[in-house]
Amino acid sequence: MRMNIGSGGLAIGAGALLSAMIGLNSQLAVYSSPAAASWVAHGIGTLAAGVLLRGLCFLGQQSAVSSGQPAPWWAWLGGIPGAMTVLLAAITVNSPLALSGSLALMLLGQMLFGMATDVCGGFGMAKRRLTPRDGGALLCVLAGTLLLIMAGR
User: Fold this and answer.
1) Which residue segment(s) compose the domain that 25 sits in?
2) DSSP designation for 64
3) Spatial CB neighbours of 93, under 8 Å, sequence gap ≥ 6
4) Do 55 and 101 lie in a common domain?
5) Could you tell me if 83 and 123 lie in one domain?
6) Which domain of life is it from (predicted)?
7) Are residues 121 and 82 in the same domain?
8) What integer pLDDT is reported at residue 43 of this predicted model?
């Protein structure tokens, strides 16, 4: 399977934005609380998403609004792990793990969950068998995570 360069660039951009969001939110948590910071982040995020959606509709991109097919019931629950991610990240970033250690462990968790989802076809995704390359990538991320965290000691 080839990666589309445009999609890869968007994914890298999303990762950078995720890091910025976590860093900013954890700073807000220092001055309030992780739960309050999560509320603020999701409230502002809701407003920003509304503005973006409105702008895409204005530009005539109807696909930004709806595919025309009803979503499965569980697809509506994505905000729950999102809120927990913001909350837990605000706690861990303000710990000795700091931003880079927290992000490294989050990446490891994302890979493990993603691989499990691929294997069982969770959330309506196509099933995919893991390959030795997947194991190698996981080991590389694990090794990098350990190096990053241990270097901070």
Assistant:
1) 8-61+77-95
2) G
3) 22, 23, 26, 99, 102
4) no
5) no
6) Bacteria
7) no
8) 93
